[in-house]
# Entry
Amino acid sequence: MRKIAILISVCLLTGLTVFSQEITPAQVPVKVKQAFAKQYPAAKAVKYGLDNTVYKISFLEQAKECIVTYDNAGKLIESEIEISSDQLPGKVLSSASKNFPGYSIITAVRREAIDKGICFEMDLKKDNEGYSVRFSETGEVLQKEARRVQVKVTTKPKR
# Structure
């Protein structure tokens, strides 16, 4: 189970490079680097990306995966912070169990966008079925996408 969570988390951060061009710290405006350093002084494993006109920064903070987006003036546009399921609001947990009975939470992310507010995204799994679901703070299902969960079966070769 832990391996699946790590794999999904790695895919989340790897997705940064799919949607944006990876760039060096020297290519990032000073205001962006200053704002980031002030807001996330304990960040580790920092990677920078450019997506059209916004700067996406992926990093680890307290062993949690994070992605933040800034405009070129250093204004924070959006943040995505990996959280544990016990950090989800009660209304979100209740909605998940009601709408997806028997499903387990594989990963959870708290997303805050300046223009859209706070939402919570989860990858849910039950047997070989899965969903990526976005919930409002009140537990309303905002978006869901079915995902087939591949279970790799390995067998020992015959000797």
Notes: Helices lie at 2-19, 30-39, 90-99. The chain has two domains: 1-80, 84-154. The two ends are 30 Å apart (CA to CA). Strands lie at 21-23, 44-51, 54-61, 64-70, 76-83, 104-113, 117-126, 129-136, 141-148.
